[in-house]
Amino acid sequence: MVDIILNHRSIRKYKEKEIDGSILTQILEAGIRASNTGNMQAYSIIVTTQKDIKEKLWEVHFKQNMILQAPVILTFCADFNRFSKWCKLRKAEPAFDNFLSFFNAAIDALLVSQNVALASEENNLGICYLGTTIYNAEKIIEILHLPHGVVPVTTLVIGYPDENPGITDRLPLASVIHNEIYHEYTSEDIDQFYQEKDNSEFTKELLKINNKETLAQIFTDNRYKKKDNILFSKKFMEVIEKQGFMNNAD
Ligand SMILES: Cc1cc2nc3c(=O)[nH]c(=O)nc-3n(C[C@H](O)[C@H](O)[C@H](O)COP(=O)(O)O)c2cc1C
Fold first, then answer.
1. CB of 66 within 8 A of CB of 213?
2. How many angstroms is it from 243 CA to the middle of ligand 1?
3. 73 sits in which H/E element
4. By Cβ atoms counted within 10 A, which residue in 20, 21, 135, 147 is the most buried?
5. Which pLDDT belongs to residue 61?
6. What is the best residue among 7, 58, 121, 129 to mutate for testing ligand 1's pocket, by most ligand atoms within 8 Å of CB?
7. Do 242 and 138 form a contact (C-beta atoms < 8 A)?
8. Which is nearest to 47 in space by CA: 63, 65, 31?
9. What ranges in the chain are assigned the alpha helix state H?
10. CB of residue 131 inside a 6 A radius of ligand 1
C-alpha cells in the first residue's frame, strides 16, 4: 500500500477500455470503509458512465478532455439528505442544516474519495481529481439531479492510463511537519524549503512560457487569481446556502 501511495501521480490521458463492474464495486467498497463522522456516512457518490451525461459534465468542468476519455467519473457529494430522511422516519428531529454539518459531510466525502483513489491505483487504474467541481457546483447539481441537502465537493476521473508521467515534486518533509507546536517560518526557512521548486528545470521552462519572474507569480497572477478566487467563493457559498446548509441561527 505504501508503494502505491509513493508512486501516485495524476493521470490525464485514458484508454477507451471499460472498468470491469466487479473491480469498480470492489473499489467503491474500499471507498466506503473510510472513517466518517459518527458513522453517519454523510456522503453520496454519483457514478457517471453514460456519454451524454459525461458530455454535460465536461462542459462544466472547464472542458477537461480526460472526462470524455475516462470510462468512469465519480462525483463525491456531502449528503445529509439521506440521513435526515432516516431521522424523520424514525421519530428523530435532524439538525444538519448548518455549516458545521456541511463541513463534516464534506470531510466524509473527501476521505471516501481518497480511499477510492488508492484502491483504484492498486487495481492499475489511473485517477485525477477535478477541483472544478466546486467552481461550477450549481451546474453539477442540475446535471446530476442532486436534491436539497446534497452538495458536490470533488470529482475523480478513473480509467486505464494512456500516459506514463513522472512523479511530481513535493516540498521536503521538514517543511510541512511541526514538532509539538507550530513553528512560524522565517524568510530563510522559506528560501530553503522552496529552493528546489523555485530552481528546477521544469520551473525555468514555466517561467519562460509564462513570461514571469518567479514561480509564485504564476500561482497568484495566472492560476489562482484574486478575482476568480472571490467569484468562485461567492458562487460556492450561495450553493451551500441554497442546498440548505446555512441555517446557523438558534
Ligand atoms: C482537490 C484537487 C483538485 C484538483 N483539480 C484538478 C483539475 O481540475 N485538473 C487537473 O488536471 N488536476 C487536478 N488536480 C490534480 C493536481 O493538479 C495534482 O494532484 C498535483 O499537481 C500533484 O500532482 P500529482 O497528483 O501527479 O502528484 C486536483 C487535485 C486535487 C487534490
1. no
2. 26
3. strand 72-79
4. 135
5. 98
6. 129
7. yes
8. 31
9. 2-6, 21-31, 51-60, 66-69, 81-89, 99-122, 137-144, 173-176, 187-199, 201-210, 215-217, 226-242
10. yes
The CA distance from 83 to 92, in Å, is 11
Quick one: cell of 39? Answer: 458513522
Interatomic CA distance for residues 81 and 145, integer angstroms:
13
Is 84 close to ligand 1, i.e. is its CB under 6 Å away? no
123 by Cβ neighbours in 10 Å (0-12 / 13-18 / 19+) ranks as middle
> Which of the residues in the chain have pLDDT under 50?
none
- Report pLDDT for 115: 98
Report yes or no on whether pTM surpasses 0.90: yes
The SS3 call for residue 72 is strand
C-alpha cell at 51: 456519454
Strand arrangement, sheet containing 150-159: 43-48, 72-79, 150-159, 126-130
